[in-house]
Amino acid sequence: MHESSALLTDRYELTMLDAALHRGTADRECLFELFARRLSGGRRYGVVAGTGRFLELLKHFRFGESELEWLRDEGVVSTTALDWLADYRFSGSIWGYREGEAFFPGSPILVVEGTFAEAVILETLALSVFNYDSAVATAAARMTSAAGSRPLAEMGSRRTGERSAIAAARAAYIAGFSATSNLEAGRSWGIPTMGTAAHSFTLLHDSEEDAFRAQIDTMGAGTTLLVDTYDIEEAVRLGVRLAGPELGAVRIDSGDLPIVVDQVRRLLDELGATSTRITVTNDLDEHAVAALAASPVDSYGVGTSVVTGSGSPAMGMVYKLVAHRDDQGDWISVAKKSAEKATVGGRKTAARAYDRHGVAREERIYLGDGPAGEHEGAADAASERPLMVQLVEGGLVDEQYLGAAGTRQAREHRAQAVAELPPRAVSLTRGDPVLPTVYLEG
Amino acid sequence: MHESSALLTDRYELTMLDAALHRGTADRECLFELFARRLSGGRRYGVVAGTGRFLELLKHFRFGESELEWLRDEGVVSTTALDWLADYRFSGSIWGYREGEAFFPGSPILVVEGTFAEAVILETLALSVFNYDSAVATAAARMTSAAGSRPLAEMGSRRTGERSAIAAARAAYIAGFSATSNLEAGRSWGIPTMGTAAHSFTLLHDSEEDAFRAQIDTMGAGTTLLVDTYDIEEAVRLGVRLAGPELGAVRIDSGDLPIVVDQVRRLLDELGATSTRITVTNDLDEHAVAALAASPVDSYGVGTSVVTGSGSPAMGMVYKLVAHRDDQGDWISVAKKSAEKATVGGRKTAARAYDRHGVAREERIYLGDGPAGEHEGAADAASERPLMVQLVEGGLVDEQYLGAAGTRQAREHRAQAVAELPPRAVSLTRGDPVLPTVYLEG
Fold first, then answer.
1. Per-position b or e across B130-155, b if 16+ CB within 10 A of its CB
2. I need a surface site. Which of A189, B176, B190, B214 has the fewest CB within 10 A?
3. Where do the domains of chain A lie?
4. Third-level CATH fold of A11-136+312-441
5. Who among B164, B204, B218 is closest to A324 (CB)?
6. Is the distance from CB of A47 to CB of A136 less than 8 angstroms?
7. d(CA A236, CA A258)
């Protein structure tokens, strides 16, 4: 595996750069914008995730000897372009929604300003990161709402690519999950890790009693025992007999959960294990979590559905040129005209407007140069909050958005941003975005 | 990013190992099996992909100082387990279906033999790789069938995690795609790369003519021009005027494709550009590709749908303990009993049985020790083909399955394996697997 992120890129980014270098247009100052035309899956709101990862990858977006040699051998671009790539450092500026922010159709989630050459070649990487991470975070936020105060653990590493698994754990954590099973996500991003045991562990031993004893001896009575390898009732009795009422939790991974969970709770209480928790993990999605709201479940483990965006595995975000400077230095708005894929040209800033109760009512996109905070806003709005922050200035990444600290900050911001949305935002049925997007002249 | 693949692992793999070490059961010889209980999405057959990637990752599955230090600091496992992990090298053996092979519910896609400790900790990584890669290959194979003799290019890097994008390009190639837009997939796996140009390139320039000129001057007349930024008809006329009838291709990325493609073909022919090809790329999936069968399309670019498994983004494969040796050295079959997740215990080999016309008719899974080739088979079968090969022997990976050569071999094998299936295998409607899975005593 190669350290550099530079070849995580579509070939055409480099051939366009090559052609622009030859035409003398590569140095034109440009604005690219990353946004979603719609919220796939009938989502009521989206959750931005990927920012911290993208900024880390941006720092490793370098064409080293090994990358250049391969491009040369394959004849991908001319030697002019190879020389240019050898010196590549992104030297422009990037603004964007905070990671964890709610977004809506048209929200300018990322605005990249730089020469055409230096901004266009970030397209593929930026979209890969934001499309996947935001799809996971958007699905995960629905699960967080459905779970209410009960904790959710992300356990889906085995159902997505092995490196996407790290991104998914991080996105789910930002969206309110409390932990992940993925160790690398713990190491790389400071996310709490958790785990129970698999059926194989029970099957390995000569009896369920042997297996439970081994686990309790090593992990302590506070461990979580998997009780559905053979007979659930027998396993619960056995677990309490071996660990005592201090048994941490039992995990149920199969069966008709509302019924089984009730039975297990009654049994645990009868056995005096009133503080032993029940965690369930059987192919859950947000609808299954919601359906268990009235059952005595203490926590959920979610796998496949969260790491695959629960039916919407990619966010559908695009990265479009919206303006470039002309030879006089003035910005020219540009936009594609094709009917169903029309874009709004020009530089944009964004703000969320609130009603007098502090509930979000409108996604405002201001066309023009000024920061959104300086706009007057519509007369009936009690207030508005500017949504964009500067992430990169003159090539320098703002370190506060990186690493474990940036991830924690995004998680906190997500909680606030979602709490401000109208109550119907938590609806799990397909529908329209919960806020309208309004374009205003800046 | 860390080189080692060892922490791409669920925490419970290591805590189970820890508990088994303490119990004295960690060294029990075990057989784990990777298989799918069903084909998600009503697929008629699955395509195995991921083998070559998994074997590469297996070679880097090492707990180095940095991994051990993190595990120690986090208190994930005991020092006994840390010492064991420090020396970890997989020393067991692995058999499996060839990469590119068709598979069915219950097919033993991978059989891992080793001690419990050394085999259990590969679970997460193996599943991540096979579940994602096979989901992509299975979807991609449907697109390959739908496209007939027309080439398909994989262009979905931007719609999946940035490292999954490489795996997706590789899986699609194995499933019959001819090229990818992803440069790293070209470098890492020898897959042909391709590319056209984006709308941003046209918008950057003062006119479409400027943009086309720049592209043709740099890339030659054989390039592919994107013609739907403004007006398709004008763009096609312009492209032929600038490049002449040698213009390689035009790409259409929007609009009502069957109508637009017909118009563009007529226009190109009128202009004398009879050999200029038409490539289409507008959110295609296998159904859209099939719907264009009668249109004069020359090639397809597929993005989102292929990298997200076209509605089934994870294959649903599991990794289960199926047998272990007892203290006398005899193999004991084990299986989970929960109704909807029951597994078939014991060592298995597999063969595909054919009718007398050479058409596959049955997936045979033999329970027992011998290689499938030695079984007699049912009396009415003209022949059968053993499906499993040894991938790893005593910890040593068979190099023929690695790298670009292994990938090419998998691509060839996929074509043969799919060609042998009954004709209804290419049906795009949801349905039952095209072959029944039959369990036989070995």
1. bbbbbbbbbbbbbbbbbbeebbbbbb
2. B190
3. 11-136+312-441, 147-309
4. nicotinate phosphoribosyltransferase (3.20.140)
5. B204
6. no
7. 17
Q: How far is A377 from chain B (nearest CA, A)?
A: 31
Q: What value does the CA radius of gyration of chain A take, rounded to a whole number of Å?
A: 25
- Dihedral angle sign, alpha carbons of residues A17, A23, A26, A31: negative
Helix (H, G, I), strand (E, B) or coil at A323: strand
The two tokens of residue B136 are 């992509």
In our burial notation (b when 16+ CB lie closer than 10 A, e otherwise), range A289-307 reads bbebeeeebbbbbbbbbbb
Is residue B356 a contact partner of residue B334, using CB atoms and an 8 Å limit? no
Task: Give the pLDDT band of residue A344 (cuts 50, 70, 90).
Answer: confident
Tokens of A71: 């491009």
Closest CB to A12 among B181, B218, B321: B181
Digit-coded pLDDT (tens) for A148-166: 999 999 999 999 999 999 9
For residue A230, give the nearest of B13, B23, B337 by CB distance: B337
Res. B166 pLDDT band, cuts 50 70 90 = very high
- Residues found in chain B: 442
All residues of chain B having their beta carbon less than 8 Å from the beta carbon of residue A339 are 254-255
Cβ contact, residue pair B158, A131, below 8 Å: yes
Predicted confidence band of residue B336 (pLDDT cuts 50, 70, 90) = confident
3-state DSSP percent of chain A in helix, strand and coil, to 5: 40, 20, 40
Contacts of A251 in chain B (CB under 8 A): none
Token pair belonging to A391: 């992430």
ipTM: 0.96
Q: Give me the mean pLDDT over the B237-255 stretch.
A: 96
Q: Which pTM was predicted?
A: 0.96
CB pair distance less than 8 Å for A164 and B132: yes
| Highest CATH level, class, for B196-297 | alpha beta
Q: Name the residue among A116, A204, A210 with its Cβ closest to that of B204.
A: A116
Flag if A197 and B32 touch (Cβ within 8 Å): no
From 3.20.20.60, 3.20.20.70, 3.40.50.300, 1.10.3720.10, which CATH number describes the A147-309 domain? 3.20.20.70
Give Cα A368 distance to the centre of its chain. 29
- Select the residue from A162, A191, A217, A242 to test the B interface by mutation, using most B Cβ atoms within 10 A: A162
Task: Tell me how close the Cα of B47 comes to any Cα of chain A, in angstroms.
Answer: 16
Burial-class residue A391 by CB neighbours within 10 Å (0-12, 13-18, 19+). Answer: buried
Q: What sections of B60-122 are H helices per DSSP?
A: 65-74, 79-86, 116-120
Does pLDDT of B46 surpass 90?
Answer: yes
Q: Which stretch of B238-247, B365-374, B397-406 has the lowest confidence by average pLDDT? A: B365-374
Tens-digit pLDDT profile for residues B338-387 = 666 667 889 999 999 999 999 999 999 999 865 444 445 444 446 999 99
* Interface contact B128-A162, CB threshold 8 A: yes
> How high is the mean pLDDT of chain B?
94
Least confident of A297-301, B227-231, B299-303, B371-375: B371-375
Residue given tokens 């399955």 in the structure block: B401
| DSSP code of residue A71 | H
Of A2, A15, A162, the CB nearest to B129: A162
Task: Give the Cα separation of B82 and B180 in Å (integer).
Answer: 42
Within 10 Å of residue A418's Cβ, how many Cβ atoms?
A: 21
Q: How far is A439 from chain B (nearest CA, A)?
A: 22
CA distance A317 to B283: 13
Which residue in A has a C-alpha nearest to residue B205's C-alpha? A25
Beta carbons of B11 and A181 less than 8 Å apart:
yes
Average pLDDT, chain A: 94
